[in-house]
Design goal:
The structure is a single chain. The chain is an alpha+beta fold. The chain folds into two domains: 147 residues, Regulatory protein AraC (Jelly Rolls); 104 residues, Orthogonal Bundle (Arc Repressor Mutant, subunit A), CATH 1.10.10.60. The chain contains ten helices and eleven strands. The protein has a five-stranded antiparallel β-sheet, with helices on one face. β4 and β5 form a beta hairpin. α1 packs antiparallel against α3 and α4 packs across α6.
Length: 283
């Protein structure tokens, strides 16, 4: 009689799990294109198929060229514009992920096959999903459930491949305006718990108020105080995810009026703080 063998098996935890798709598109932009920027509570992948774009991501300002990509984290302010006199051809995919790896930088150079895979995914998008307004992924078409699962798995594999590559140096934009932007954002981050005026920040940064206004118009597309409030909301989201109440988080980022905090929070995220807390999981 043969002895029975019991195998425990090796549990392989997923490193990435995409739970929802929001939008996906490929588009060629004009040489003078400028997107003023936004903040949202989901991930956004931007890949340059051809050409070059300038990108603001948080406090940094850098160049993305052919074959390079960036993945913006939830609640990270970001904007982009055409660079180097090119008409950039880019792919943008936005999604929610309930499992995402910790990476110091989410800037990477996909392999040639990965870029081709992204292009192939976009070409079959409308066959699998109902698309609204040309870019919004509304729902899986009847009978396409397996293809939708495969679509998401292929996207996860592209991101997984990025995790295995060594970090690459990207060209940082070193103009005076970009350096001023970095300086002001760092000062705002250091004082996010305080209430500051433009004149106070200008003094801390050894800049004029007009220079700050010009800098934020160029790299953020919004005024400095609007950006500062968005930064406070991003920090509050993180604090609530760590267990703070709405009132505690509001006070921790310098809001003395919780009602005003809720107003700014809803303006930034699209929902009230309590609705946001009840509908999101934080990592």
């Amino acid at each position: 009689m043969k002895n029975s063998v019991t195998l425990k098996g090796c549990v392989v935890e997923k490193c990435i799990r995409i739970s929802s798709l929001f939008s996906a598109f490929r588009q060629v932009f004009g040489k003078d294109y400028y997107f003023s920027g936004e903040t949202h509570d989901f991930w956004e992948l931007v890949c340059v198929v051809e050409g070059a774009i300038g990108v603001t991501a948080g406090e940094d300002v850098f160049l993305l060229e052919t074959g390079q990509a960036v993945l913006h984290r939830p609640m990270e302010f970001h904007s982009f514009w055409s660079e180097k006199d090119t008409c950039p051809d880019i792919i943008v995919v936005t999604f929610a992920g309930d499992i995402m790896p910790a990476m110091k930088e989410w800037r990477f150079r996909p392999g040639k096959k990965d870029v081709e895979e992204l292009c192939a995914l976009l070409s079959c998008l409308s066959r699998i999903f109902q698309i609204e307004q040309r870019i919004l992924v509304e729902k899986v078409l009847p009978g396409r459930e397996a293809e939708a699962h495969l679509f998401v798995s292929r996207l996860e594999n592209i991101l997984l491949a990025a995790c295995t590559r060594e970090e690459e140096d990207f060209t940082r934009i070193r103009s005076a305006g970009a350096e001023n932007y970095r300086t002001v954002v760092r000062v705002l981050e250091e004082h996010v718990a305080q209430r500051l005026t433009v004149s106070e920040v200008a003094r801390m940064c050894s800049m004029s108020e007009s220079a700050i206004k010009k800098t934020f118009t160029r790299y953020a597309g919004i005024g400095m105080m609007a950006y500062f409030n968005q930064m406070k909301i991003r920090r509050a989201v993180k604090l609530m995810g760590e267990g703070m109440s709405v009132g505690q988080a509001a006070a921790a980022v310098g809001f003395t009026d919780q009602n005003y905090f809720s107003t700014v929070f809803k303006r930034t995220t699209g929902m009230s703080p309590r609705a946001y807390l009840s509908g999101r999981e934080y990592t």
